[in-house]
Design goal:
This protein has eleven helices and 20 strands. With 487 residues, the protein is of the alpha+beta class.
């Protein structure tokens, strides 16, 4: 089938990336039209206080006119609020940190928006994402098809390492991928800018959008207060001494040490808080060595495969669990001033101290630094835990604080998503891979351990700010294999 026989809808946002995507498709001979979607109309929640979507629509319409393609508009704000924003509110209310951009792609761009495009006659939908797709092939080099005879597609990282956006598409399924085009996935951002300027597109020098997808740059607590009520609670600083006697922390330390490859045992480091040495010698032979985008997984790692296999599901579940802080502060009365007025204060506690107050634990996330507004420390304070039920925030001083780091996370069975079925792991299987737990994080060496109770991701190096609700995404080289929200 020739390109001019294929009608493609470009999700034209008014930005330079989608503009160049439309330009390239037009040059390649596709029957292209643009569709701009309005997903948010409440300017009171943005820092700029303007209806940013109106300006974006104006630019998008000028771009479409410049390229010479039809322009349409659709209002999906009701769907966006129901399927993305309400999910955000629900997750934050539970003390979890969602990623709205991942949900926007799965629920809106490649679902609600796709359906609108199909009603207008489109066979494919194109976006300005920096990622790629290709048809998968088998060991014999022949194209793979599913049980129904349809092509199986791989989702690949974008060629531009600085702009790769495959993370945001980690929840797409095969049906969605089959109808997706990513025209700029194999070129770099500077090249995109150059093409836009050469074509004199109105969006050529437009700054990249920031903040929540289609909402804009917002003050998150203010945004969440539309639904979640502020509630004053304590900020508790946790001292290093707390970890010395903590049973869960000690269990993680001992378990991690027990599964280290034999020739790694002398590199004790700190299995939960500090960073192991970076030597790659180890006995954990991989059934499928992986070449990562930021480096190469050697096929060997920090931990021994047989030792990991000996761990029970219960041990792995416990290893993946964050610390639950249980510091109890007792009060005492004392006399103050000339009149000896009776007052109450907290007794000194060797494990921590109440150092301030906050407006609601649901507004904070693990690893957060900004927004605490508490001084008197030599190093910055970071959120190391939140307790929404008791409305307490736990913080630690310094980037190396023990509470910031974990080596293992879990994804529940029902939340494990594979891009295509050929990538699925069987119960009991262990696989080397590269993982990131947030957008723009460099890919990390890790082991996927599949068990009936879920998937466990065991990192070679302890990870800072593992946050429940965020998406962990795993790669085999440039191929994005699967993802899931962190339990």
């Amino acid at each position: 089938m020739k390109n001019n026989d294929i009608k493609v809808c470009v999700g034209l946002s008014g930005g330079v990336d989608s503009s160049v995507a439309a330009l390239l498709l037009k040059q390649q001979g596709y029957d292209v039209f643009a569709l701009f979607m309005q997903n948010w109309n409440d300017a009171s929640t943005t820092l700029h206080g303007d209806c940013e979507w109106e300006e974006d629509r104006f630019v998008a319409e000028m771009v479409a006119r410049k390229i010479g393609i039809p322009f349409y508009f659709v209002d999906l704000s009701r769907e966006y609020r129901r399927r993305v924003v309400d999910y955000m509110f629900s997750e934050y209310s539970k003390g979890r940190t969602p990623n709205p951009d991942v949900l926007c792609n799965r629920e809106i761009k490649f679902d609600a928006f796709l359906k609108c495009a199909e009603k207008l006659g489109a066979r494919m939908v194109a976006t300005g994402h920096y990622c790629r797709k290709e048809q998968a092939t088998g060991d014999d080099g022949q194209p793979l098809t599913d049980a129904g005879g349809f092509p199986v597609y791989r989702l690949l990282a974008g060629t531009d390492k600085n702009k790769d956006q495959s993370y945001f598409l980690c929840q797409l399924n095969q049906e969605q991928l089959s109808k997706a085009l990513f025209p700029i996935g194999d070129i770099t951002k500077p090249e995109v800018r150059r093409l836009a300027r050469e074509a004199d597109l109105p969006s050529a020098d437009k700054k990249d959008s920031q903040g929540i997808c289609f909402v804009g740059k917002v003050d998150l607590p203010t945004f969440l207060q539309q639904v979640l009520e502020p509630k004053t609670g304590n900020v508790v600083e946790v001292y290093d001494s707390y970890y010395n006697g903590n049973e869960q922390y000690r269990f993680c330390e001992e378990t991690l040490r027990s599964i280290m490859a034999d020739n790694q045992e002398n590199h004790s480091g700190s299995g939960v808080t500090g960073h192991f040495d970076t030597g790659q010698s180890g006995a954990a032979a991989s059934p499928r060595p992986v070449t990562g985008r930021e480096g190469t997984v050697s096929g060997k790692g920090r931990f021994g495969m047989e030792k990991i296999a000996s761990l029970t599901d219960g041990q792995l579940v416990r290893l993946s669990e964050p610390l639950r802080y249980d510091i109890v502060f007792e009060t005492e009365t004392y006399r103050s001033g000339k009149r000896h007025v009776k007052k109450t204060r907290y007794k000194e506690n060797p494990f921590g101290k109440i150092i301030g107050q906050h407006d609601g634990a649901q507004f904070y996330t693990v690893g957060q630094r900004k927004g605490l507004n508490i001084g008197g420390h030599r190093e910055p304070l970071f959120v190391i835990g939140t307790d929404v039920e008791r409305n307490i925030i736990y913080v630690g001083e310094g980037e190396s604080h023990k509470g910031l780091y974990r080596s293992c996370l879990m994804i529940r069975p029902e939340n494990i998503h594979w891009i295509h079925d050929d990538l699925r792991m069987k119960d009991g299987e262990t696989r080397r891979c590269m993982v990131r737990i947030r957008y723009r994080q460099p890919l990390q060496d890790a082991l996927l351990v599949m068990r009936p109770s879920g998937m466990f991701i065991l990192f070679d190096e302890p990870q800072r700010g593992i946050t429940p609700g965020q998406f962990a995404v795993w790669y085999d080289g440039d191929e994005l294999c699967g993802s899931g929200p962190i339990a």
